[in-house]
Amino acid sequence: MNAPNPAFAPTRRAVLAIAAGVAGELALSFRLSGNTAMAQSAEASSFRPNSVVRIDRDGTVTLVVPYAEMGQGSLMSVAMLVAEELEIEPSAVKTEHAIGDNVLYASPLLGEQITGGSLSLRGAWKPMRQAGAAARMMLVEAAARGWSVPISSCHAEAGHVLHPASGRRVAYGTLVQVASTVPVPQDPPLKTGTLRLIGKTLQRIDSPAKVNGSAIFGIDVRLPGMRYASVMACPVLGGTLRRVDQAPALAICGVRQVVELPNAIAVVADHTGAARKGLAALKPEWSDGANASLDTAGLVATCDAALGTQGLIAETKGEPARAMSAAKTTYEADFRLPMLAHAALEPLCCTAHVRPGSCEIWVGSQAPGRARNEVAQALGLPAEAVQVNNHLIGGGFGRRLQSEWITQAALIARQVDAPVKVTWSREEDMRQGSYRFHNHSRIKVGLDERGMPVSWDHRIVGPAVMAWFLPGYFRNGIDLDVTGGAYGPYALPNLSVDFVRNDPPSGLMVGNWRGVGDTRNGFIVESVIDELAHRAGRDPVDYRRALLEPGSRMLAVLDRAAKESGRDGALPRNSARGVAILSAFGSHIALVAQVDMNEQGRIRVPRMTCVVDCGRAVNPGIVRQQIEGGIIFGLSAALYGKITVRNGQVEQSNFHDYPVVRMNEAPAIEVVVMDSLEEPGGVGEPGTAVVAPAVLNAIRSITGKRLLALPLDPAMVQTS
Amino acid sequence: MLIQVNGSKREADVDPDTPLLWVLRDVFGLTGTKFGCGVAMCGACTVHVGGQPRRACVTPVGDIGEQPILTIEALDGSVTGQALQKAWLAVDVVQCGYCQSGQLMQAAALLEAKPNPDDADIDAAMSGNICRCGTYGRIRTAIKQAAADLPLPARAP
Ligand code: FES
Ligand code: FES
């Protein structure tokens, strides 16, 4: 999922049109198109815009954004793209979340209204700018008409159109009526040369409301007459509700109602405090079902067994078998990755109001169009009868690509005579996740006499999430996400990648997790390459250098990281720097992690240096934020991340048994963003992908021991 | 029962063992204070009770009595709060923003107790506040910047 959906031949050109029938404003609608065919038919007849730049008579510019904002800065970035061409300041742009609609608001690169895969900006880059450019051209033409002067003698600046020859100047708001009668330019040219905003670090427009408590996240929605619910599903994954005595909850002050679903129970009250107290008072009896004896040891054993079976060939190059048998020596290793939860800070929460024949949802979703369809299906309504209002998200990381919790809220609301806000407890959020599933890899590398790889064999055992999540990324039985990045950015002469599909048992939900496939394979590839460097007696940076395309962007990034991290400077005994690199999501990244180990063999990570070439950075400040955040996220997983199952129940419940990195453990992070004029690449995920290998590679340098599994043994982590 | 929040008295008809968090959010509509864990492990719900930082998710509303409560919505009522908010924007701390109400309230309590915190002070005061977006480095910078910004007489106690 790190690349455009292969099921499409995406066009990135904006298709522009005027929205009909809106008086007193210039509403320029445009389509971030799903595929070429769709765009062409749209141009021909039934044009269905999916994004809107609206300019009101008072000059207010509103941008309806189809993407979710979960911290990655999508609102600011798209506002900058439009503002650049429209000649206004980003702070003058008001943003609104688009409602959930998979047809209207499909991402041009994924084909659905999905925010994920670090693809938002990559899809928005050209269409958003063209929309701004078209609006500007129409406003300039409107002004020129009014003054009866040539269009070429006018230009736009700071929300006004200017005619320098006569010194006249008019605000956009005054022009919107006339501008809305000007023909819409098709394929308007973008600014060239020096840009005013793009490429600058500008303060995010969504921040002011987030430092004074006024920002409204999904969990903050308030409606007249609304009720509050707390919910618990069967703790055994996939189990069902047998019976419950509702009386103890109903006896609690503020509790209104107990709602039973086939697999869960919810308490509805006047406030969440009463709902939580009511839920805690219940002793539901569950039917555990098929997963009653499911445990992590069994899941791991299944993966291990699968390592011994030949998978479907995902990729080959050269003559891997011949080269392997001709190799001087070989390196073989098995790698094991645990199950992980997303643990975003905002627990899952959804407000729903079901009336006869319709349903309205208030939520923060990464896939609101899907949520709409799934709710409609669950309630037996047509999709048009369901409206999904999207909101700010307090961290997504992939969990909110799923919609089962939204459907659950709708099913609860169906039994409640008012809008109801269903807030999951942290424990529920941890135990009913859509986890990253176990991934195991078997690696065999054939080496020449200098210890350089001549043949690369990578067997991946993992789930086929894409088979149901985005079937465009599932080809001939192979999950293109799980198998992506299976040999890194290296120019290897002979290779073979095979995939053994290993789905979880029904009831255990798995999904996408920040960094997706490249985070799993990045760990494995970068561990192996590093180990090969050690075995060849070479510096890990030099070894990688020898395997990268000369003149490539990846090589330049690695060189810069080596320089920036001062890797030649001396470190104290029992400290080392580890390196890891990745080319994915349209970006190239290198991370150098310093690891210090104490007398007890416990480590801490005081410092990280990261260099990224993500093409043209729309806002380098946001790039830095995303890389820093991705690194902390990856570090939490490397040090602690592990979800385990026992008797069918997830054992972890809150931040004491699913710890995450805190202030006192957070390394100092330096991020260098390379200057580049290439198309923007994604930055939300690559930072996460390089952390674990960099840290474990540093540990290898200190201890001489190669660790092959995540997370670290708790006995190795210094916690204060 | 009557509670004093952000300078005004408000009435809540709830059981005294109800956590303050839900009274603030659901009864009073002060949704700036966030829910993250419910067990005093993440800091998202941090408010000031009687001038001290408290986790609202584990503070029974019946225990508050006369003590005034300050939430993020009124943080800009103090010079410390204003300096922190300004620094937060200048350093571009915020990502998803969900933890930031709690971070700011915790930081305000820190600066009021220690006008010039060093790294160890910041670690000690702020390590109970989780940020899953990983804004820790910028929070550290912003706290120091706010501290430097505050005119000395205006600083604590
Ligand atoms: S919600 Fe109170 S500390 Fe987490
Ligand atoms: S900014 Fe998202 S949790 Fe802190």
From TrEMBL, chain A:
Residue runs in coiled coils: none
GO molecular function: oxidoreductase activity
SUPFAM superfamilies per record: Molybdenum cofactor-binding domain (SSF56003)
Record-linked Pfam families: MoCoBD_1, MoCoBD_2
Aldehyde oxidase/xanthine dehydrogenase a/b hammerhead domain span: 212-290
The protein's name in its UniProt record: Isoquinoline 1-oxidoreductase, beta subunit
Organism from which the protein derives: Bosea lupini
Family matches, as InterPro entries: Ald_Oxase/Xan_DH_a/b, AldOxase/xan_DH_MoCoBD1, AldOxase/xan_DH_MoCoBD2, AldOxase/xan_DH_Mopterin-bd_sf, N-heterocyclic_Hydroxylase, OxRdtase_Mopterin-bd_su_IorB, TAT_signal
Automatic annotation (TrEMBL), chain B:
Cited InterPro entries: 2Fe-2S-bd, 2Fe-2S-bd_dom_sf, 2Fe-2S_ferredoxin-like_sf, 2Fe-2S_ferredoxin-type, 2Fe2S_fd_BS, Beta-grasp_dom_sf, Diverse_Oxidoreductases
2Fe-2S ferredoxin-type domain sequence ranges: 1-75
Keywords of the record: 2Fe-2S, Iron, Iron-sulfur, Metal-binding, Oxidoreductase
Top-level taxon: Bacteria
Any one GO MF annotation of this record: 2 iron, 2 sulfur cluster binding
Name of this protein: Isoquinoline 1-oxidoreductase, alpha subunit
Species whose genome carries this gene: Bosea lupini
Biological classification of the source: Bacteria, Pseudomonadati, Pseudomonadota, Alphaproteobacteria, Hyphomicrobiales
